[in-house]
Write a structure and sequence with these properties.
With 310 residues, the protein is an all-alpha fold. 51% of the residues lie in helices and 1% in strands.
Amino acid sequence: MTKMPLKIRSGSGRFELAQWIASKDNPLTARVMANRVWMHLFGRGIVSTAENFGAAGQPPSNPELLDHLAISFMEDGWSVKKLIKRVVTSHAYQLDSKFDKAAFEVDPDNALIWRMSPRRLDAESLRDSMLAVSGQLDATPPVGSVVARAGEGPTGRPRLGGDGISQAINDPKNAHRSVYMPIVRDNLPEALALFDAPDPSLITADRPTTTVPSQGLFILNNPFVIRSSEAVADKLLKSTTTETERIRAAYLTFYGRTPSEKEMATAEKFLKGFQAQLAKDRIFPPRQERETWAAFCQALFASAEFQYRK
């Protein structure tokens, strides 16, 4: 990093500091930004310690690439859009996730990008995807704030005369995009907190990705997921007439592809077995069909293909 010139004519010096930070004479800013963009697009930065470019951090996996992106970023007028375009139109970004044994032996961490590493959707994208697939997503910004409407008092438990903030931020009927959800310190919405949304009390450069039992239990039991599954089931029952058509429509809706013969047979077996179990449990026939298809849709929500980018 170059030394900051001390040429402050008047004022506090903040304007001069900002000019120096975003100056070609200070290459660190461009390198950090290029690394952050790469990290968000690939899931891992060229410098894996995105918050630490110092001696305590990890060295870049490809220093020449980082320098190239940083220099191009500055030459393009510090345009983030042009930087993103440069990366997403590259050969590396267009690779699929196919496993290669020889490449894995040389680079098991995929630091040099010999394939696109499978990545789970982040918490906001996963929730929004469920809403979009079920046809419930409300893209319009909400009016006002549930935090303001809840009034004064603790946020961790309901209060007399109202539902409380905790209930409001975890309302399963809330169909707005996750970006519009209220974020209360120490009380993140469950749909976000379980899937590694960052702590709003801290600065987080790179989100961790964990796989814990509570995530699976959320998909199985949470009212939001059940409500979304029922909404997809209702769409399938209204738009199709035969079981085969509904299975194909479900795969197209969730995965953007048609099922294979093996997947078709597995789905038919699941539907038949689940409906038989409902009949055994003496569930009324009118409810059996809807509950069967809702369970099938919930299973698709829980699948790795729905939750992971490949």
